[in-house]
Design a protein that fits this description.
This protein is an all-alpha fold. Helix content is 72%, strand content 0%. It is built from five helices and no strands. Helix 1 runs antiparallel to helix 5, helix 3 packs antiparallel against helix 4 and helix 4 runs antiparallel to helix 5. The longest helix has 40 residues.
């Protein structure tokens, strides 16, 4: 007879139920990556949303000269912000790295929404580079005294008719990305729970 006591059942085993595999351990890197991705994407969605509901409607009530000068200053400040640049680019990087780690750990339920989130935010980057930045450059080309520009009304009209609705699209894409990230975070929590659902 063995002198050692019988091993205790695994904490996730339940009497009368078929044996189940132990839950995967928490990935020390994946969890903070998910949280950081959610925070950064939320900040970007909030920034774009603030432009949609306050900045652009407020500017629309101004004359063309004041509109151009104010938007030039907004663009100059945000372009010169190292914090904005870091968050703007890191958001995609964090999400992609998190997706790769999830795939490597074979956590498909976590990885799939991460891929969706990354795709949505990548679309934001593409739209920003292809549409918003060229329009910002057109405003900057008016110079520090936009009132003297002969084509000021045409430039402002083109800017308003494109930049404003495109920014709404960026907001929607960021919100979709944020929703997918929250889904991934929820799936990760379920996958690493200490006990299976009853």
């Amino acid at each position: 007879m063995s002198q050692y006591p019988a091993p205790s059942p695994a904490p996730w085993a339940r009497p009368g139920h078929p044996p189940v595999s132990p839950p995967p351990g928490r990935d020390r890197a994946l969890w903070p990556l998910l949280v950081a991705s959610v925070v950064c994407t939320g900040l970007m969605a909030g920034l774009f949303f603030a432009y949609d509901i306050s900045v652009m409607p407020g500017l629309a009530e101004l004359d063309d000269r004041t509109y151009a000068a104010a938007m030039q200053r907004f663009n100059a400040v945000i372009d010169g912000s190292a914090l904005f640049g870091l968050i703007f680019l890191a958001t995609l990087g964090l999400t992609v790295v998190a997706a790769i780690r999830a795939f490597r750990r074979r956590q498909r339920a976590v990885a799939v929404p991460l891929v969706v989130a990354a795709a949505c935010y990548l679309a934001v980057l593409v739209i920003t580079v292809a549409v918003n930045l060229p329009l910002n450059a057109d405003l900057a080309a008016l110079g520090s005294h936009p009132a003297t520009a002969k084509d000021l009304p045409a430039v402002i009209e083109d800017f308003k008719s494109v930049w404003v609705p495109v920014n709404v699209v960026r907001t929607v894409l960021c919100v979709l990305s944020l929703g997918a990230l929250c889904s991934a975070l929820l799936q990760y929590g379920r996958a690493t729970a200490p006990f299976p659902p009853v």
